[in-house]
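Bit of a strange request maybe. I'm writing a small parser for structure token strings and I need a real example to test against, not something I typed by hand. Could someone generate the tokens for this chain?
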Amino acid sequence: SHREMDAAVLFCDIQGVTPLCERLKPSELAALLTRYFNTLTDAVGSERGSLNKFIGDEIMCVFGAPFTIGEEEIRAVQAGLLIQQRVRELNMVREREGRPVFLVGVGIETGEVSAGYIGSPMRMEYTVIGDRVNVASRLCSKAQPGQVVVGPNTWERVKDHVVGQPIGEVALKGKSLPLLLHEVTALK
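Reply from user aminoacidic:
Good idea to test on real output. This should exercise your parser:
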């Protein structure tokens, strides 16, 4: 059974995986990705978000489902900023060691989602679905390396608590009107 809930959804993707696929053995690539995924999931966990799923080199995280804690959108934005900070720190160390680094993009949108179990009798998983989820995913794909990009709903809710700037309108597939995107760079 699905419940309508208000949640913030954060997508984070690791950029630059494809060129490394050609240079590294699969086991080396797996170890490297695991290092980054651990860094990202720690940042999300520290803001009490739940890691929902890995999709290739992308992570989907949810704030506010299955449990509502409050201030979902600000915790998601804090997690996004923390992700970028931790990745910068990790990359500085790796560059000094002459080892490959990844860059990361983050997209966040907030609003009504449908939360519950989806799948077949063989494999069920708890997740959230809905328009906000799709928008968050698209925002992540628009994020430049190092950016935390938020959609209009999230921006409305966090704008008094963060430092950010508009980064233009973007037409998303299946949306009649373009969405105004903001990059968040810090908490106030």
